[in-house]
Amino acid sequence: MLASAACCEPLVDHVRCPAADKEETGPGVAPYPMSSLSLTIATRESQLALWQAEHVQHILQRLGHQVSLLGMTTLGDQILDRTLSKVGGKGLFVKELETALETGRADLAVHSLKDVPMELPPGFALAAVLEREDPRDAWVSNHYASLQDLPQGAVVGTSSLRRQVLLRALRPDLDIQPLRGNVNTRLRKLDEGQYDGIVLAAAGLKRLALDARIRHAFDTDTMLPAAGQGALGIEVRSDRQDLLDLFAGLADQRTWQTVTAERAVSRCMGGSCSMPLAAHGEWKDGQLWLRAAWGDEANPNAPLVSAQASAAVTDLDSGDALGQQVAALLQQAGAQVRR
Hints:
- The protein is an alpha/beta fold.
- The protein has two domains: 38-134 and 227-332, Periplasmic binding protein-like II (D-Maltodextrin-Binding Protein, domain 2), CATH 3.40.190; 137-217, Periplasmic binding protein-like II (D-Maltodextrin-Binding Protein, domain 2, 3-Layer(aba) Sandwich), CATH 3.40.190.
- Helix content is 28%, strand content 21%.
- The protein is built from nine helices and 13 strands.
- The two termini are 28 Å apart.
């Protein structure tokens, strides 16, 4: 049963495609025949970002469209000596791509959804969310099979405030140090001996065929993932009805409903990379179970605030409502909204 109190205004990723809540036709299958389009995908130039863009490129090419890539370097890629929470947040990874969409240099952008701000700027829309990869966090270490195997005071690398508070809850003795850069840069720093272990998204490692580097995938009960982790989002200009129609048939509706609920928690809490916040949904017996955890960045050793709820989610609106409910429960338990 949904709570009656709403923590924020409903927002379902700004613009829904007309067919967004229709029966799913499956990845790579358009809902109806469409004439061939010539499309350009704006993408960051990291290996993982290019994999994601090429993945979407191949899907569109199988449908008969001509697709090219426009590689770009974002401000978030350039600033590596400071944590994202101190230099502007996740929007640093998408601003340049949105400029390319706005000026017509590109038709769509492919993002790791956990890197996309909870509210898109006016004039932009999330056209689809694709099937999710493994949403869990991965433990990577050359010498220790698990977090529990680390000696006292071991150095662990992550710049995610969420991961930091969850790691401290598990092992308050650890020395947690910042870790920035793309996947290969982070692995290189580990191999150079700068860290005893690092925590990365399992999805990125698997997409780059680096599964062998994963020593242990954290259970979601132990390390609750970030909202949208493991999912890919496709962003377009909201006036591109042709693309909204096209991607309506490519979206994975269950994934989209799940991440809509997760992102609603973050949106209602004022969440960004500057707030230690986790939100993750799982389907059980036809219900979406949504869990969230909040940490106080001003007091990182304080106990985590947790909340959970479930609902029979059938569309993006009901997913958003579930996320609002869980955010309200977090606030009732003591979590503070960032204004």
